[in-house]
Amino acid sequence: MAVPRATYRVQLHAGFGFDDVARVAPYLAALGVSHVYCSPYLQAAPGSLHGYNVVDHSRLNEELGGEAAFERMVAVLAEAGLSHMVDVVPNHMAIDPAGANAWWWDVLENGQSSRWASFFDIDWGAGDRVLLPVLGDHYGRVLEAGDLRVARDGGSFSLGYFEHVFPVSPRTLDELLGAAGEAAGSDELVSIGVALGRLPPATATDRESVDERHRDKEVLRGRLARLLEESPEAAACVADEVAALNGDHDRLDGLVARQNYRLAFWRIAGQELDYRRFFDVPELIALRVEDDRVFAESHDLLLKLVAEGKVDGLRIDHPDGLRDPVGYLRRLPDGVYVVVEKILEAGERLPGSWPVAGTTGYDFLNRVGGLFVDPAGEKPLTEFYAEFTGEEAGFGAVAYEARLQVMREALAADLDRVTALAVAVCERHRCHRDYTRRELREALRELAARFPVYRTYVVPGQAPRPEDVAVLSAAAAETGLDADLLGFLSGVLLGQVNGPGEVEADLALRFQQFTAPVVAKGVEDTAFYRYLRFVALNEVGGDPSRFGVGVDEFHAANTEAAARWPGTMLSTSTHDTKRSEDVRARLAVLSEIPGEWAAAVSRWSGRNGARHGPPPDRTTEYLLYQTLVGAWPLSAERATAYLTKAIKEAKRQTSWVAPDQQYEAEMCRFAEAVVGDSEFVADLEAFLAPVVEAGRVNSLAQTLLKLTSPGVPDLYQGTELEDLSLVDPDNRRPVDFDERRRLLAAGRRDGAPKLWLVARALAARKRRYPSAFAPGAAYRPVAAAGERAGHVVAYVRGDDDVVVAVPRLVHGLGGWGDTALALPPGRWGDELGGGRWWEGQVAMADLFAEFPVALLGRWPESPRPAADRPVAGRTARQRPRSEAGRPPRREAPIAIPISVLGRL
């Protein structure tokens, strides 16, 4: 497996397609990455901005340029020395309103007789029709308003509802065509109608009936099309019948009732949906990719591109949605680089049996970000949050209530489906037969609400992992429900209870697919928008109740990664992060100044309330101030767009399902007034000045840690410069690659230090010290000594080839005092400019004197000449050496002048 040196994620859409990737390839090669990391690019629904709504696995997305542009991109990447990897969506497909998903269209047309009926995770036992919650009002009202209309295209008929189009089952055309044939005096038309009505029913699933239905309906459809083309009279009579049908609500209702789908009000999706979705999105239906045929047809093109050497790596989206994640991963070809978008909760480990290089990096993101959060700020920030907002509940309680709410509303149908399986299991075990549906539902709901991780990974027929046993035991213990029932259910869910059928295994697997969306929707998409004590911690895979990460914990995780997952991805920003890496790095500074922060918020709130009226609620006001500090300068348009999404996700005063437009308007009005208040802005910017400076140091520090820790550093598009983006779609705005290309070519540390740092560190990985960063290269922590040793993170990579050192918790540090770092034996040169080198011990004040972070490489034993090396627009000579064998120590403040930091 060829492990990437570094990846660069790009978001593809109609405005940035394959040819655009080719255009930026020379820049990305010069930057130093090895792989372009593309968002999904199989054919998606028209107008897709992200590619996760795939409608056809057999084609490359035409809106991105199609096959021809893809081939051009691959050729240009190869010419630039770049490989590429792609995001893969195995868990679901899109239900496109216009019918672009041919598999789904066939299911709607033919029901259970469709050749693709088994491809989708549909509960056919709930009825013969699939529920389609797409209507803007109750079905009867929509029908009587005339919004449903039948139309003909050749020998096919469809039912239209605004932008939605649905097939009309050929078997249900018998009455319409019979009446039209009688009116036209056409025996042929009557004959076709009768023959269509005699097609095998949509509930027939035996091979002979399925083949007969599909064969005969196409023959009859062809006969009908030819007849109506050759006989204007027959065509006119069919048109008259269609018009009469559309004008007769009862007749139209009769036709709709015979279809293989039930049109319904969109609000009932969470309660009654009979197919599994991606989380709570009805437009994304789950695939049964555990089926060999489904895997083969949905991966044929993708694996062909891998086999041809055109795709060099795969990023597997949402593996926790799969029925059998490890089984799926083992079907992927050997030798290809694979990472999984696995969200690891605190203390959770990636299953060692998974044949992957690692995760997509959310675990690293939260770990490295925690280094810059001061634990001493937890108590005062918690107290002020409660005082200012009135919110006193801890994160655990908030998350528990949020999970219950999403199971009660968005995921109620999913819970019902799991409950039905539990009822069936109990029916097969006489000692548990008398538990009621209500008791079983409550037990399953409480287990899911208490789950400490996304899911377990039980494989029926195999002994459960100790980790899975611990998870179920911990969740069951917290519920306080009937011990006998919980013990029995836990045994089933761990695959330890067998029965006369497969329902026990089905329940174990289905429950695992259920807890993942409960955690994702309840925690990351709800609780993270409710619990706002310190939003720098509210990140995907994070735990807002854990305030900071210690240096020893960071080193321990890196040491484990070097030994077990040397190819894991290291991320700090992604397309799904709640805030960009630079926003979080700036917000982290607030943990060091809780008193100043509390005073500022109190001052701002008093002034803004007096000038602009009170906000709708204090909790959202508190979020607004954190958002402004983290992302300033922020336009009123971006601020209100973010707040609108945040309060909808919180699902308290308003939500996506039940919007309160008055509340939303009041919150936006307040935010616009605040952002437009020049007096407030002046106060905000005065408060921000030292915070921004310290935040930039944090940003450079976490960037260097990402670029040099064990694993594969990933850059999200545009973040090589300072990027103060918020959650999507804010973080998917166009990237100015021309500006980045110009700044990279200029090569000035003072003009774009973050970009310059990225390029220098990647050059060290690629050219100067490749073995130090190769998979399996050693990682050894190095402890600083002195009064401020806890403010340093340092380590050695490879065979003592590279030393990395960065500062942490730098706001107001003032100076380094006697803090120093003992270097391994040998001569160590500054890889970040300045032409400096050291031996033995180096004072931190000297090491960080010219740049906030340090990357040192082992130099040859013979001293390098005092060569000129460009830095900050001047020529730097090798520093004079002291009698102790190191450059003379110079006390310097940690604050780096803005003139040096420049524009990140």
The CATH topology of the largest domain corresponds to Maltooligosyl trehalose synthase, domain 2
Low confidence ranges: 862-904
Number of self-contained structural domains: 5
Estimated radius of gyration: 31 Å
Tally of helical segments: 31
> In this structure, how is the largest beta sheet organized?
8 strands, parallel
The top level CATH class name of the largest domain: Alpha Beta
Helix percent band: 40-55%
Measured distance between first and last alpha carbons: 35 Å
Output the structural class.
alpha/beta
Shape assignment: globular
The proportion of strand residues reads 5-15%
Number of strands: 27
Query: What is the averaged pLDDT score?
Result: 93
Strand order of the largest sheet: 16-15-14-5-2-1-18-17
CATH architecture of the largest domain: 2-Layer Sandwich
Topology of helices and strands:
Elements: E1 7-10, H1 18-31, E2 35-38, E3 42-44, E4 54-60, H2 66-79, E5 83-88, E6 92-94, H3 102-110, E7 130-135, H4 139-144, E8 149-153, E9 156-161, E10 164-167, H5 174-184, H6 187-197, H7 207-230, H8 232-247, H9 249-257, E11 261-265, H10 269-272, E12 277-278, E13 281-286, H11 292-307, E14 313-316, H12 325-331, E15 337-340, E16 358-359, H13 362-370, H14 378-389, H15 395-408, H16 412-427, H17 437-449, H18 466-479, H19 483-493, H20 503-524, H21 551-564, E17 569-570, H22 581-587, H23 594-612, H24 618-631, H25 636-650, H26 661-675, H27 678-708, E18 712-716, H28 737-746, H29 753-768, E19 779-781, E20 784-785, E21 792-797, E22 802-807, E23 820-830, E24 837-843, H30 844-847, E25 854-859, E26 869-871, E27 874-876, H31 898-901
